[in-house]
Amino acid sequence: MTAMTSTGTTGRPLLNRRLAEFGTTIFAEMSALAVRTGAINLGQGFPDTDGPEEVREAAVRALRDGRGNQYPPGPGIPELRTAITDHQLTRYDLSYDPDREVLVTAGATEAIAASLLALVEPGDEVIALEPYYDSYAASIALAGGTRVPVTLRPHTDTTTGTHSFRLDLDELRAAVTDRTRLLLLNTPHNPTGTVLTRTELSAIAELAVARDLLVVTDEVYEHLVFDGEHLPLASFPGMRDRTVTISSAGKTFSFTGWKVGWVTASPELVTAVRTAKQYLTYVSAGPFQYAVAEALHLPASYFSHARDDLRTKRDILADGLTQAGFEVFRPQGTYFITTDIAALDLGEKDGLAFCRALPERCGVVAVPNAVFYDDPEAGRTQVRFAFCKRADVLREAASRLQRW
């Protein structure tokens, strides 16, 4: 038998050429480094405590009662689809039909992949806000699309002195061509923590309508907004029937391993996305769907407490990083803080090298933002830390960085 290599037996690469630029994700690399060194892992965005006990018990109850242990319905169980529409109506005054305008997915990542596979043809241009979550680039590539980055730029408020990232609307308008099919938005934005404003979203909506564009919005951090407010793009004039809105339970309820996400959109868009999704996982997370249905009906106090708790953790880590000498971009939302290492008195300019050395240096793991850019130079000195950890863990991490 002929031995197989990375180029196969015929010399042709084994990996689909559309994925040739992608390797092991940075999250896998840095998490493995955290395990090997015993460092505090502030790289990958998962909490170190579970979510509400009543939601976990709802999953156990579903398992014991035999609900979801076999294939659930393709679009998702009716209870969850109804809970999703109730949530959209109560929170945002957006009305959706649970039977025709909701699709449950294996997390938001599958929802993004299925949406792009369904809606993008080879050669179509997809505009995404850079830096972007790494699955965006891979999903666009799998669909045969051409990604067009529009970069969120560092900005300093001259009045408050605070650092943030902002969208240049003129740059966004200039990026649209006759080949543009779709805008892929993420607000609250990972990794920068930017929350798009009403003015920015209104301008995006006007652009989408004027140029007849589809929009896919990743809103998984919708309940984790500390400054400003979350406004679904689908709620703006002309956007209800051209927007695929994506969210999930993992970030909101701290059960990231359950992988329960969803799509809300017009019947035509949901049908298109479901056509692609059914050949990915078909269905998943049966018992967890029942639990998430109950979670979405938790009282408003749960959501406000979760937000306030994370705001406190953000401030613990942001203050600690500032004291350690980092330039800190205090996020408006999500659970990530972007920093710039150029301000450190170390001469360090390469975020990837910095992050690979950091666990051995002081026992903390972070992620370099350069991997989220098409042009790595744009984020070469940026490093991202996750603050979805216990307060004592964040204080210890900050202390280690300050001592070092």
* Unreliably modeled segments: none
CATH superfamily grouping of the largest domain: Type I PLP-dependent aspartate aminotransferase-like (Major domain)
Query: For the CA atoms, what is the radius of gyration?
Result: 21 Å
Sum up the overall morphology in one term.
globular
Question: In the CATH hierarchy, what is the class of the largest domain?
Answer: Alpha Beta
Strand content: 15-25%
Q: SSE order, as H and E?
A: HEHHEHEHEEEHEHEEHEHHHEEHEEEH
Strand order of the largest sheet: 2-10-9-8-7-3-4
Number of domains: 2
Q: Could you give a short account of the major beta sheet?
A: 7 strands, mixed
- Indicate the structural class: alpha/beta
How many runs of DSSP E, i.e. beta strands? 15
The count of helical stretches stands at: 13
Output mean pLDDT: 94
CATH topological fold name of the largest domain: Aspartate Aminotransferase, domain 2
User: What's the helical proportion of residues?
Assistant: 25-40%
CATH architecture of the largest domain: 3-Layer(aba) Sandwich
Terminal CA distance: 54 Å
Q: Which key terms come to mind for this protein?
A:
about 400 residues; Aspartate Aminotransferase, domain 1; Aspartate Aminotransferase, domain 2; 2 domains; 13 helices; 15 strands; about 40% helix; globular
